[in-house]
Amino acid sequence: MSQLTHVQGNGEAHMVDVGGKAVTVREAKAQGWVRMAPETLALILSGGHHKGDVFATARIAGIMAAKKTWDLIPLCHPLALTKVEVQLTPEADGQRVRIEALCRLSGQTGVEMEALTAVSVAALTLYDMCKAVDKAMVIEQVQLVEKRGGQSGDYVREQEQGRLR
């Protein structure tokens, strides 16, 4: 097992020095879901929500959050992201929205935290916009799907029954 990079030998937390790393293209994808009542999802999809376009608002919130991850997670570096994409897709079961984020840059550290933050904040925004009609919504399975580039190499989450879980 690898050692924790943000913990020194004496147990103190510290920010990792990435100054000696090569600048390479790095990319990360994350996903998560928001489970809700079918009526809530139908309301969102019909455009009848009194707060406006729920998916558009959540998408913008996710993009903004990725850009501010360093402000939210204490030991993250400020990054000059070159791409942030957030997609919200209703699942066929009519009870879940799948949220996916892609973050990319040319830099000295990865963008996994930015992708995970984008998904998380998009999910929280979706919850916030719909809590008046469905307080029982559940944010679930926020996870890293894939990362490319960097010293530790590539990572792709194993597929379960033909699709990413």
Provide a descriptive summary of the structure in words.
By secondary structure, the protein is α+β, with helices and mostly antiparallel strands. It has 4 helices and 7 strands, in the order E-H-H-H-E-E-H-E-E-E-E. It has a 5-stranded antiparallel beta sheet, with helices on one face. A two-stranded antiparallel ribbon has the order 6-7. Strand 4 and strand 5 form a beta hairpin. Helix 2 packs antiparallel against helix 4. It starts with 23 loop residues before the first strand and ends with a strand.
How would you sum up this structure in a few lines?
By secondary structure, the protein is α+β, with helices and mostly antiparallel strands.
Structural class: alpha+beta
As a percent range, the share of strand residues is 25-35%
Low-pLDDT parts are 160-165
Sequence of strands across the biggest β-sheet: 2-3-1-4-5
The shape, in one word, is: elongated
Percent helix range:
25-40%
Gyration radius, in Å: 17 Å
Tell me the number of helical segments per DSSP (H or I, 4 or more residues long): 4
Largest sheet descriptor: 5 strands, antiparallel
Question: Could you tell me how far the N terminus lies from the C terminus, measured between alpha carbons in angstroms?
Answer: 24 Å
Order of helices and strands: EHHHEEHEEEE
Summed over residues and divided by their number, the pLDDT gives a mean of 87
Number of strands: 7
